Batch of 4 targets.
Target 1
Amino acid sequence: MALNTLDTRQVVAGIKNREFSAEEYVSQILERIEKVEPKVNAFVTVNKEAIERSRTIDKRIRDGEEVGPLAGVAVSIKDNICTKGIKTTCASRMLECYIPPYDATVVRWLQEAGAIVIGKANLDEFAMGSTTEFSRNGTTRNPWNINRVPGGSSGGSAASVAALECAVSLGSDTGGSVRCPASFCSVVGMKPTYGLVSRYGLVSYANSLEQVGPIGKTVSDVVSMLNVIAGGDENDHTTASGKPAYTLGESKGQRVGLVKEFIEGADPVVAKVIHKAVDTLAGQGCKCEITSLASVQYSLASYYTIATAEASSNLARYDNIRYGFDMSPEGYEWNSYFAKARSNFGDEVKRRIIIGSYVLSSGYYGKYYLKAQQARALLKCELTALFKKYDVLVGPTMPILPFKVGEKIDDPLKMYLVDIDTVVANLTGMPAISVPAGFAEGLPVGLQIMANEFQEQTMLDLAYSFEQAAKVQRSPEL
Amino acid sequence: MQTKIGLEIHCQLTGAKSKLFCRCNCNYRGKVPNTNTCPICSGLPGTLPLLNKKAVEFAGMISLALGCRVPDEIAFYRKNYFYPDLPKNFQLTQYNAYSITSIGVDGRIEYSDGKSARIRRVQLEEDPGRLVYESGSMETSVYTLIDYSRAGVPLVEIVTEPDFSNPIDVRMFLDKISSIIEHLGVCDTKLEGSVRCDANVSVGVGNRVEIKNVSSFADVEKAIRYEITRQKTMTSRDIEVKSATRHWDDARKVTKESRTKEEEQDYRYFPEPDIPAVVLGSEFVSSAKQSMPELPDDRKERFVSKYGLSVHVAHVLIDNKQLADFFESTIKLYSSPKEIANWIVTDLMSFVDERQKDQEQLLFTGLKIGPEHIADLAKLVDQGVVNRATAKQILAQVVRTGEMPSHVAKKTQSGKIDDADALALAIEAVFVAEHTAVKDTKYNPNAANFLLGKVMQATKGRADPKTALEMIQKKLKEF
């Protein structure tokens, strides 16, 4: 069996028991990358130091030293998460030459746990998009059908896992950016509760909404990653203190609510797979019923208002004065230089900066931004009440199947609509996970499971039970 | 025509040690440009602000000292605008338009007898970086250098209501503010650029003009005076005073119109998502009050009641914390508060350069004087070793050389004439010369003092006045 197909536990066990070396494993991963990248295009940068790192792990094992819980595991990192000494471009011209002088907390913790950063994964520019088409590095392709989009914005992360180019990946989820590509690529992707995982070193798109999230082939992979990256960070005031430890266990008799609005809005072929998934859960002893989340109707408008408002301010720093790309200031005064440099953002990013600047402008703040925050509070209120009745809420992660590359790229509104099921978790701060549910027309469908704040264990238990029962295929032939 | 003046004072919390949102040192002065930075204060992608709790405490103390209400909860807002000295192209500050989020509101401070000004708000924010113009001025520079070493230094902005009507009041108010923040130990006001002041001036029904770029409190007074005259002149000629921002030109001592803004800038304020609201509560206020050092007004009161100083002398001492501290150090060495206060306020201050008083510089720069000198001098006078006139001459020498006054007194043998014979001789001579005055003493007791003055003159002040007077009175009785 090729080493690149192993899951996290198998890799760590194999290396620790010296069945194979970390170097052999990483070499096979690099070979795989070389082989499939021309088709998939999941990476922006491959880490040249990876082999060197694997040798260090091997030496430590030979010397009988302690190695971490992710010893030797190849992990890809979304290219909006800072890696010291490795370019972090956010798939943007604006950060074409940017090499961070520090590691994001999650990257530091992963490396301390023995993981090896194999490369930086492709994304929509500054994580703004749902297809990974808005990337300076070209579109990432869906490993199940390379004419289809892999989802986004963490498309490179999900595709690299599905294409067996790494064991696990770190993505970021602002409005569904981990779960959407996980669903489209038939892998497991999770957005933790807001504040569970440090954002220090995650290049901000919309601070109040986003979390770094793990992507893996299995729920087990995701739990292994989460145990390393979760916990309070002194460099992020918005993290909750403490260091939780999650386990892999099956659930018994959980109360499951299938959200009517989510299933009704979905493509019938997708809805069919989800109904079948709910039957599977019922067969596992879950008490399933249909429920309603009425304020979902405000979620997209609220999400795009808040996200673009925060983005317009977050992205103001990219003026090419301190870092960025090569552009001489000769012949410009400040304002014209700013304008010229900032014209290098991609269209989607420009669109969101303009919308965000508009909703924050004086006279409109109350009409848009404050209204959006009110809708957000309402949604959270309603969801909190629902979690008194249900342990988890389920529905499709994506309302549609992975579509063709280029299909929606010229219609931003249609593109924004595909986020309808995922933004709820970001607006309310609650955790959500996408687990492969099956296929329709040969394309993956993901089941989304949401739980109440910091109830990750409940959510993971259900995800694991479902995964064990449903046995959905993970990696395609490539 | 009514003149209205409002102030915005920016004061760096140099005592907070580190910057407002990162662990960098807040002392950037004298460092190689752009070395006092880290990923956070240089606004690198992915960094998050970490709030400096000490700065919040200091800002709370300032608010309380200015009589402000401190809310139970404070928050930070982003003020968005593009400027090269802002690493993130937004400034983290506080904002009260939607709800009160700033550390202090609605204060009032008395700055001279019966005069007070209202404080609209006190807010905590980050200092931007420093722009260095290659030629020294914005207008003539071909390029501009940016030093981010200052970016992120904690800054407290104190905004007053337009409660001033003349520049002298403004000056008194600023001296008071300066004294308060010095006493709180939150800001070293002597450091260049640590306290900056913008003024808003309007005359009659005219528009408000903002004056920026004023580097010292003395210049604030001058700039306002100039601006009032300018606006009054315009109004008298029926020229409309337009709402504008003007810069103080230190070289020409005039205000100059800055490049005009075509439209009101929209800062697109919104709450900073990365800093959760900071809950202060009543505990914060009580602990801030407890840890607050003695404020100028209390200190003045103490100087009057404990040491018996006059209100005027106490005021002069307190207005400049350095003087007050100097006074207290001196009386620790030799406990004669009234005498020492007088030496400091009247005699020692006469040696201080006027310009230094203005620039809030180290007061005794260039003077070789310390509390030990004044203590020694006061002791010499109290013990009758030298008289006051001689002591003044000694002080003039001491400030130049740094010698101890007792040493100088011995060296110049300026000690009093204690030889009774020599003194008797001098008195004898005066009695002969002033025989009319001697006769007058029978009707006019003050004539004795006149004779004493003559004796002192004859002995060049070296006679002990007390002994001399006794001898004069004795001699008069012999008549």
Target 2
Amino acid sequence: MSTDVKTIPQVEQTAPNGIKLPIYMDNHATTPMDPRVLEEMLPYFMEKFGNAASRNHSFGWAGEEGVETARERVAKLIGATTKEIIFTSGATESDNLAIKGVAEMYKEKGNHIITAVTEHKAVLDTCKRLEKYGYRVTYLPVQKDGLVDLEDLKRAMDDKTILVTIMFANNEIGVLQPVAEIGKLCHERGVIFHTDATQAVGKVPIDVNKQNIDVMSISAHKMYGPKGVGALYVRRKNPRVQLSALIDGGGHERGMRSGTLNVPGIVGLGKACAIASEEMAKEACHLAGLRNRLRDRIMGRLDEVYINGSMEHRLPGNLNISFAYVEGESLLMGINDIAVSSGSACTSATLEPSYVLKALGTGDDLAHSSIRFGIGRFNTEAEIDYVADRVVETVTRLRELSPLYEMAKEGIDLKSVKWAAE
Amino acid sequence: MSYSDKVIDHYNNPRNVGSMDKSSSEVGTGLVGAPECGDVMKLQIKVNQQTGIIEDAKFKTFGCGSAIASSSLATEWVKGKTVDEALAIKNTEIVKELSLPPVKIHCSVLAEDAIRAAIHDWKKKQETSKPVAVAAQ
């Protein structure tokens, strides 16, 4: 399981129970590659280095064969056909191609796009750019549990709406949107439905037909594949979706994405999908078990701990918790042998707390106090127990240091205090 | 974010954590920042009424490691100083001592504010408590 992942650039220590430190539990940021994926990729760097577009020699054919096997594997995982898979450099490119490609192609039909406030920046910033070019964008709010209200979506649609883009699973809170219902509403109105499924592919079952998805972004490195490779699913019938290309050139990928194919990367993505097709059901149970164990071991021992987002509609490996009266960055500093993320402003470049948590109606104070745990394929039960212990210990220590915890315990309503901000 | 050794030391071993009786006339309390901003500091000083020297200082902070370190350092620095000397402490000195990066300068500003707020509170108490003290004699 850990054949080739020994080179973590920090001093490795060993904790009780033989746990290797630091522990990686930030699998929404990226995942380690599965050794089986690497093994499949390796021949495509040296022996099978050919350009998949070289049609007249065996080097090219070997590359093409690798790519086409991968295309079948990706298609199979999501219930698509091979002609509906376009390889890209990753989900950010896929999101850009989907949104800008649809906007450009269907501009005669309308100029209105609907998305949600909790989308990834790759979607939000793409929509913002289109606004500069005269498109109209509606940013739907989400409910307290992080889900889009279908009634809001219905109301937002008009006869100029050409595209709805709503993510499958959120990267911070792991909340799963009602994708099938959203797709149905879109199809009833002849609107194209794109979903950024970066966090969902390989984690939860996806069937593009059953779930009424027209265009879908896929990334390899969130599912134990390599970085710098992804795919875009583009529906071929009922309805047939057409896209304007972003990158022009040699006409690769049916003209939708020119550029010599990243053959080893694509082979890796394919293998990652093949593994997911085989193991996803079992793995999801395992991850949900670990996640619930972590939740119970933290919440059983600490008061005033809040889960952000729906527990019911959620990725199995995601847990996002706010620890009231403790600031997220200081918590991360205390558990520095564990790699997780925080929604605290102090951990972001913008000095603003997580916009996703704010959209749920979580106060800024609790957004500052949030930690995202991303549990993945290679985490163990012993690691979960260690992480829970370290979190409980650190939160307890920081609360002893927290004037807010002291005030709350004295019965002071923190909302009624007039804070003298800086 | 990488922290300086001094920030890490204050975070791991914060000095003078705790609370003093805020109703005492010898104690000045400063509470600055706001939970929404991700930083709240409470800094308290205990002043010798005869000498005007700060004999003890305590803090509690909700905030990042740099905020905790800034307030921990502030309590160390004010102890043994007169209130006027303590008022002269500048946030830039805290920045220098802890090697705070530009994005963390606001933590040092908050610590300076906390010192000032605590002294202000103590001074206010002296004004109001004096007539009472005279009457009691």
Target 3
Amino acid sequence: MNSQERWDALIAHEPTDRVPCLQFMLGHTAVVNGKPIAKIYDDAAESLACQKNAQALYGHDGLIMHGWANAGGAEFGGDIEFPYRKYTGAPLMKKNPVQSEEDAWNLAVPDDILSVGTMPISLEISRLQYEMGMTVTVQVGSPLTWAGSICGEERLMIWVMRKPDLVHHVLRVVTDFIKKKADHWIDTFGAERLMAFDLCIETNKLYSPKHFEAFGFPYLREVHDHMTRQGTSIFLSHICGEQNKNLPLWSELSYGKRGMVSVGKEVSITKARELFPDLIVMGNVDPVTVQEGTPEQVRALCKECIEDGKDHPGGYALMTGCEVPPQAPPVNVDQMVKACREFGQY
Amino acid sequence: MADEAGIFEQLKQAVMDGDEDAAVAAANAAVAAGMDPQKAIMEGLAAGMAEMGRLYEAEECYVPELMVSSEALYAGLGVLQPLVAASGATDARGVAVIGAVQGDIHDIGKNLVKLMLEVNGIRVVDLGRDVDMETFVEACKEAGADLLCLSALMTTTIIAIKDYLPDFKAKLPNTKIMIGGAPLNQHLADEWGADGYGENAMEAARVAVRLLAAE
């Protein structure tokens, strides 16, 4: 099978020749193309080219997308810095758009959501994906993560304790924005062509499972239901970091025709398989080892992950537990597809 | 006669409840009773925060609870700390400089470490987030820092720590250097030559106290 055939089979829930390797690889694709990392985020054509070239270089089977963890703030008027400076690897919120309770109560969905923040770039990438016959990707949250980008995570956490109604108001506005965005993507590209994804950093190192239940889950469910009811083809959730206590609720979300969950090293693949029996489970090679370890250490980790996941009835793909570090040595990244070939044959 | 133990308990409970008004009231009560302000801080406010730290490590409370507790702590410190300064008391355990390194705007963990260092009687100079690496050296020299705490939460920003640690150690021979943040671990700390590492803010404070005591 070639990469496209392997991806198509995985999505169609048909047998693949070996375990696919999917990469959440953004800034690193710029580095291996000799381009500034920022181009992945502020230049649609360059971003797509870098990701496609990197896929050809390494031989992995997907993913090509546009998004990052702390998204949402720019769309509501925050100051964003693209990662041109040394040691930066993703867009930074220099100033959150909400600085006070008054700002939060005044938060509203912009009239023209397509012109705000990084929406034009996201839309352009999706348009290029569509024209090339690719899966069209669209980032749709998570609402709580976006609320943190809008209000500042620390401020939001204090409001979770002291001003829960205010937090719900912010989440209401954010969720309405996301649903409006989703509707535009569905109307423009068709639900069948879409892969919706949410990047969710509301870990249990920060929030309790009760906080997740009150402030995370209801809005995630609303977005997932909104998109899957309209026939969105694929829904991918990146469940970042330590979220073991949130997993039971994650497993209640609708994922539509074909769902995918990616987990970090904090969540065992075994546990993910139990809770998501029908979904593609992806993970969970430690990105820090990919950056700081040896090729042998990366290979060993990959072998372990493949052995844990390869027979998952819902489907399994080898992936890092979070974004491939932009500065990871290519000889380490290269171990991942090699490991799939060596240990992942069916 | 002032019920010293009772006021300590009020200070502690105010922090645990995240009640800024109660913390200020109890701090004023301590002042009115002529209590030693440093003792009121350590056995009242700091004790409350230490208990919250224990609850966090036991997974019985989470960061939002710590945040509101810290608001109450700082409200009480607002009353008591000027009195400590006025008494001429010196830094009990030492001086630390802390910051999130260049390119990193995540500062919740750094702020929690700062809080726990202060709770343990260490004076902290907080440089904030996205701090140019050269600024750390200048700040340490100016403050006479016994400890430098570097925070990084991304794989790109931990590289800044790896790159600059040898330079920092050469330029700050009398300063212990600790590192922390989600991508880091004891193995990397040892490999890169850091003097200490803490998996969370409470552990970081314990390590810091040990490092300063060893001087």
Target 4
Amino acid sequence: MSDVSADSLAEIYRTTYRALVRFLYRKVWDAERAEDLAQEAFARAVVHKPENARGWLFIVAANMARDEARRAARERRHLTLLTAESQDGTATSDEVFQEEQERVQVRAALEQLTPRDREVLLLWDSGLSYSEIAAHTGLAPGAVGTTLARARRRLVEAHEAGEKGEHVARG
Amino acid sequence: MSHVDDGTLHAYLDGELSPPEVQSVEAHVAQCPACRTRLEEERALIARAGELLAHATPPDRELPPFRPGDVKPPVRLWWKVRTPVAWAATIALALGIGTYVGDRGAPRLEPTAPERPTIIADQLARPAPAPDSAFAAQRQRVAERRKRVSKPAASPAVGGAIEEKSRQAPPVTADGFLASKAAAPAPARPEMVRLGTYADAMKGPPIGVDSARLLLGTDPLVVPDLQIRGMYRGRLLGYSAMVIVEQALDSTTVIEVLNGRPSRLQLGEVVVTGAGEARRDTQSPGARALLNTRAVDSLAAASRPAPTPVADEEKAKHAALGLFVDVRGPLPPDSLAALRRLLRPLRP
């Protein structure tokens, strides 16, 4: 069908870039890395000219983030205590610290979702429609709402549980 | 009529139902108080989930310009790069750790090795591969060629990607306010404390420069004017916080600058330096300890040059920040020492 021109890709870039960075950030948890990966996804889109560029970008981004996570997992074995003690003795403004704490808690809650639930939730939050999410994940279109309902509930519950038991060991 | 299930309620609230479906949901909710309550509950749930996700958002940056011709080649991952110096680095690691463990606490930063050429100077002095504009033009050409053959080539030209990354660094916030937070005073018998050496530092997940500052309480030290490839959390016994900054000397040589904040429990001030390969996660701590001990034995009689005044100054300066810093990478110790002397706080 119709080729993706540079113009329409530029438009997609304008409307989707930030959402893609946000999507990636919630997978790699490093803002600069997320931006690098988003840039690379767009660079690949320029080369491949995919038909549905927006959906394609998120699939490519998800794959890149997965490769990244595999590498990180290999190096994480010895680091399980790091998050818990890392803030020790480091004074910083309360606001920044609170924000960082909140981020850590949301991240921990997100990581308790099943991969599929998390993916659907992150894709929805990135602005993809149910049909785009269905195409991305292989879910039946009718199942997206159910998955999203479950993902949202689990996120909120996991976050509440995390707030109550802040010192519970991470999984 | 049967109740509306959760999935349908969410699809309704997300505006993802077709008009007939919307009608049927609204008709049911209008005459079913239970579903009306659930609808409001799900609405609140959706709002709360959105709120939580908003906390997990990267800092808002300006949209970088979109240049269709600006296609970055796939970046060669440095940990997959096998350079001929890897073996040399392994040997240097063994010698290095042993030597420094041998007299920790002594104010010596590194041995001089006059028979070995200092290669670092010319690496630093070498100009960038190509001026920006020429480089961009070259990439443009590459991109066009790729379009024609519609098959990506794999020419590694890492420079551009990294340059861009280092430019993206966000503005500095507070620094130096921790300058007064020097390390805890060092009591006697530091040799009783089994601290990890810097070469043992484990590399953790990638972090951003903001997180690095937050962890250290100050700017991480870096080698100025070298491309920063990334920052990682590090982990090492005796340090409450560690940030590892990866910097590229050239397209195949990457060094790591380790910035450590000693934990309060540390009993002796230790600056341990050593060259090493970046990945050593195959060795158990026991094996490392053994290696260290052997190296100490074999090097016990080796001549130990006196400390240079420069090294002392540098050490004092970094200690004043409350940080202990080292550089590791596949380079001879004297080159690493030269890099160590160049370290400055990161202030983009």
